[in-house]
Design goal:
mainly beta, Chitinase A, domain 3, 8-stranded antiparallel sheet, 3 helices
Length: about 290
């Protein structure tokens, strides 16, 4: 993994200290307010106080989405584009200041993110394409680009916008980019006795998406573990190339051309003809046959 543009990782989001995270695996509990208590005022909202003091520039972009810059030290370098992988530190909040997600929830200083392929709700991709490495911004995502008129039970109310506070820490060069297979390896794994052999079975988890569909595949949701034996044709060509040399605990991003994915036929209603497909893969184990 080669990091092209980097800023110091010690710069953290101020928002992280404003609220304790929800308990692991449990949705936050929303209590009905006491009718005798006065309604919460904007001045009691630490997020709005932070915005008032720090936001320097605002821009309305596609579909009413808003980008509001807190810091933008490197405006002369290119903005993020579809197919770029960047490292993000973020907090996702509701307008009332409640933090509902963030890389701190998984105890990581940042997460890798592929721009333009529906890794998250639509508003992420649209907003990130207006940012540069080094930017610290608030992206105001309307409900239509977030969780819609249903929301998320006990977490996001129906028809609610969400606010993404994000710092773009770096852009990452791919570890390989040839023959329609572009990939990034974030954990290279340890040397394994079966490296270089064909008589093995590789077990892995996969999330796949494309520009037209955020839900091509998700083995985590279905509680499945997939497997591949080198030489088989039960996966698309690009994955055969990557999986045959995989090691346990590797974490791989792969952006495959149509020829290395589902080609001119597509894949039912999930992938359109001649569409690139993104795979987010974690190798769980490798066993000898």
């Amino acid at each position: 993994m080669n990091i092209r543009y980097v800023i110091p990782l010690c710069v953290s989001l101020i928002l992280g200290c404003s609220q304790k995270p929800a308990s692991e695996g449990k949705p936050p509990v929303h209590k009905q307010p006491n009718s005798e208590q006065p309604p919460k005022k904007d001045e009691d909202n630490p997020i709005k106080e932070f915005d008032a003091k720090n936001i320097k520039e605002k821009k309305v972009v596609e579909g009413g989405l808003k980008v509001e810059w807190i810091d933008a030290p490197f405006k002369t370098i290119p903005s993020l584009q579809d197919g770029d992988v960047c490292l993000l530190s973020y907090r996702l909040t509701l307008p009332d200041g409640k933090i509902i997600d963030g890389n701190n929830r998984v105890k990581l200083p940042f997460i890798p993110y592929l721009v333009g392929y529906n890794m998250q709700i639509k508003g992420w991709d649209l907003g990130l394409k207006h940012l540069h490495v080094g930017d610290f911004a608030k992206i105001v995502i309307p409900a239509s680009m977030a969780y819609g008129n249903t929301g998320i039970k006990n977490i996001v109310p129906p028809n609610s916008e969400v606010w993404l506070y994000v710092k773009v820490l770096a852009k990452v060069s791919p570890d390989g980019d040839a023959n329609g297979i572009k990939y990034w390896v974030f954990d290279k794994g340890k040397p394994h006795p079966l490296d270089g052999t064909q008589d093995k079975e590789i077990f892995y988890q996969a999330i796949a998406s494309c520009k037209s569909n955020p839900n091509v595949q998700n083995t985590y949701r279905k509680h499945l573990t997939l497997s591949y034996i080198p030489g088989q044709k039960n996966v698309v060509p690009g994955l055969r190339f990557l999986l045959k040399n995989a090691r346990p605990n590797q974490h791989i991003f792969a952006l495959l051309s149509p020829e290395q994915a589902y080609g001119s036929q597509g894949y039912g209603n999930l992938v359109q003809p001649n569409e690139r497909v993104f795979f987010n893969i974690t190798i769980t184990s490798v066993r000898e046959l």
